């Protein structure tokens, strides 16, 4: 079947999970599209010109890479690219693009939501409601509280803008220290993280996963935080040393955590994080708003049009850095 496919149209392999991406008609009219699951990826990659990793949590690409004999472009339907950024891709000439920009505002809303949930003690109110108990308490204000957003890409910036609008005082931590940033004001150097953590009431992790950021939130980082600080992770689970986080929560080194991502997903049933007090858990859904799958396909379709027309692609990832550098997200 593959041998009879017309070569005048590019061949696109699409790695799917349980369902195919929606609204692919515009692409299907201009390419030979091979939909596949992880088991069939090697066959689908043979002779393919491009790969759309719609199942962005899949780890199947490295194992099938040997079959990518004419691949020129790989697009992943997420902002994070760590599932596909392995040595074979790094060392190749294949262009890597991501779906930067789709989830920014939704994740920012999630972060504001959990900040409010902590400050207003919503979880406790819900528990008391179920028990039929009337227990008056006082809640916290969020205005004027200090937030450190670790990761200064577009998601971090959307978080900073929304929290500032709510009256919070926001700074950032990134690769380079600077002042006068339009969203963060001050950006601290991530290498000096433990020096700035003691000032934050909320610490939000949204950094990309790289060799420099993996495990950056460890026992030393948690020990540097205020005992009243809350930790929010909407970046990658591997940014955190989970055992150190559990210890910090158990010993009340920090006051609480809102966690949307984990180093093992789904979170194992035996994980103590499920039952620790003052921990909010969501199943990697902070950016998944109604219609997000259609938006992901729209982003890919526009890049596919550009690719076919020989125009610059949007969201080209620097494979050395592991993310799209500022200013290189593409035109439009």
UniProtKB/TrEMBL annotation:
Residues of the D-isomer specific 2-hydroxyacid dehydrogenase catalytic domain: 37-317
Claim: Oxidoreductase is one of the keywords in the record: yes
Gene3D superfamilies listed in its UniProt record: NAD(P)-binding Rossmann-like Domain
Oxidoreductase in keyword set: yes
CDD domains: 2-Hacid_dh_1
Domain D-isomer specific 2-hydroxyacid dehydrogenase NAD-binding: 113-286
A GO molecular-function annotation: NAD binding
Pfam families for the chain: 2-Hacid_dh, 2-Hacid_dh_C
InterPro entries, per the entry: D-isomer_2_OHA_DH_cat_dom, D-isomer_DH_CS, D-isomer_DH_NAD-bd, NAD(P)-bd_dom_sf
Entry keyword set: NAD, Oxidoreductase
Family, per entry: Belongs to the D-isomer specific 2-hydroxyacid dehydrogenase family.
Protein name, as recorded: 2-hydroxyacid dehydrogenase
Annotated source species: Amycolatopsis rifamycinica
Organism ancestry: Bacteria, Bacillati, Actinomycetota, Actinomycetes, Pseudonocardiales
């Amino acid at each position: 079947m593959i041998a009879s496919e017309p070569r005048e149209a590019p061949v696109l392999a699409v790695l799917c999970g349980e369902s195919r991406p929606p609204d692919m008609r515009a692409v299907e009219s201009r390419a030979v599209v091979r939909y596949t699951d992880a088991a069939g990826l090697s066959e689908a990659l043979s002779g393919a010109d491009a790969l759309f990793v719609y199942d962005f949590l899949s780890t199947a690409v490295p194992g099938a890479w040997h079959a990518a004999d004419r691949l020129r472009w790989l697009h992943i339907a997420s902002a994070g690219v760590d599932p596909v950024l392995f040595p074979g891709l790094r060392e190749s000439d294949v262009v890597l693009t991501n779906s930067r920009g789709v989830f920014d505002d939704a994740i920012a809303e999630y972060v504001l939501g959990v900040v409010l949930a902590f400050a207003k003690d919503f979880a406790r109110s819900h528990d008391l409601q179920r028990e039929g108990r009337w227990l008056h308490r006082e809640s916290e204000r969020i205005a004027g509280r200090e937030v450190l957003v670790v990761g200064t890409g577009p998601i971090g910036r959307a978080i900073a803008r929304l929290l500032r609008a709510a009256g919070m005082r926001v700074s950032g931590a990134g690769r380079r220290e600077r002042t006068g940033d339009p969203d963060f004001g001050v950006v601290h150097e991530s290498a000096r993280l433990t020096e700035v953590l003691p000032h934050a009431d909320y610490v939000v992790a949204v950094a990309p996963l790289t060799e420099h950021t993996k495990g950056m939130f460890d026992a030393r980082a948690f020990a540097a935080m205020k005992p009243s600080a809350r930790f929010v992770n909407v970046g990658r689970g591997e940014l955190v040393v989970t055992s150190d986080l559990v210890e910090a929560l158990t010993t009340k080194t920090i006051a609480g955590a809102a966690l949307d991502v984990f180093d093992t997903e789904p979170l194992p049933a035996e994980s103590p994080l499920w039952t620790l007090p003052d921990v909010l858990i969501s199943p990697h859904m902070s950016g998944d708003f109604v219609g997000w799958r259609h938006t992901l396909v729209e982003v890919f379709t526009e890049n596919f049009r550009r690719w076919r027309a020989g125009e610059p692609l949007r969201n080209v990832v620097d494979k050395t850095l592991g993310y799209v550098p500022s200013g290189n997200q593409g035109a439009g």
